[in-house]
Amino acid sequence: MRLLFIYILALVHISMYGQVNVNDFIVKDVYYISIDISSNNNYPIMFDAVLNKKDSLLIDTNNKESFITGILQNSIYVPRCWSYDVFLKLYGDTAIDTHNKFRNMFFDEMEKNGKSKIIKLASGEMAKITFLELKGVFVLLDKEISFSYGLNQEDYPQVNKPCIPIAITEYGSTNNLTIKSCQ
């Protein structure tokens, strides 16, 4: 029922502002995955992804490029910098406040209830994977709209329809995510 209410609320905002197509919304039951890769030689790389609950997260631990490529090939990319543009289209004048409240609440929940794993890559970098099971409404973005810290869009062309969450209806257990090495 809450999911239906949130979806209807999003559609009302769409009709009011007419900027986002109704086909750009998806309701998903997923793992939200946050990836931070640190290296002594370079700036950190930070990005997020969503993975269908029935899928396993496939990783390649040879080096950071193959690690990132493996994750992006079997998940949906989420830019770490959630664009204000989408929230402006949906919420108009209250967009910045709505964006900040939602983002802060979401990442507080991720920090409080998410589960983390540290993986050392063969090339020496450390990758921290934090994940949380959730159900919510996501909006699909244009490919060019936003990328994350340390990732260059030109280096990862397989990202074709990134998305961001705009409403979370349920947080769940994080015990069921399977991380598999694809080496």
Strand-helix topology:
Elements (H helix, E strand, L loop, with lengths): L1 H16 L7 E14 L6 E8 L4 E3 L4 H10 L2 E3 L5 H8 L3 H19 L1 E6 L5 E15 L22 E9 L7 E3 L2
Parallel strand pairs: 3-8
Antiparallel strand pairs: 1-2, 1-6, 2-4, 5-6, 6-7
Helix pairs in contact: 3-4
What does this structure look like?
The chain has 183 residues and is of the alpha+beta class. It has one domain. 29% of the residues lie in helices and 33% in strands. The chain has four helices and eight strands, in the order αβββαβααββββ. It has helices spanning 2-17, 64-73, 84-91, 95-113, and strands spanning 25-38, 45-52, 57-59, 76-78, 115-120, 126-140, 163-171, 179-181. Strands 1, 2, 4, 5, 6 and 7 form a six-stranded antiparallel β-sheet that branches. A two-stranded parallel ribbon has the order 3-8. α3 crosses α4. The model is unreliable at 14-18 (pLDDT under 50).
- In helices, the fraction of residues equals 25-40%
Intertermini distance: 43 Å
Q: Structural class, from secondary structure content? A: alpha+beta
Number of domains: 1
Radius of gyration: 16 Å
The number of helical elements comes to 4
What's the order of the H and E elements? HEEEHEHHEEEE
Give the mean pLDDT: 78
Poorly predicted runs are 14-18
Strand content range = 25-35%
Biggest beta-sheet profile: 6 strands, antiparallel
Tertiary shape: globular
Number of strands: 8
Short descriptors:
single chain; 183 residues; alpha+beta; 6-stranded antiparallel sheet; two-stranded parallel ribbon; 4 helices; 8 strands
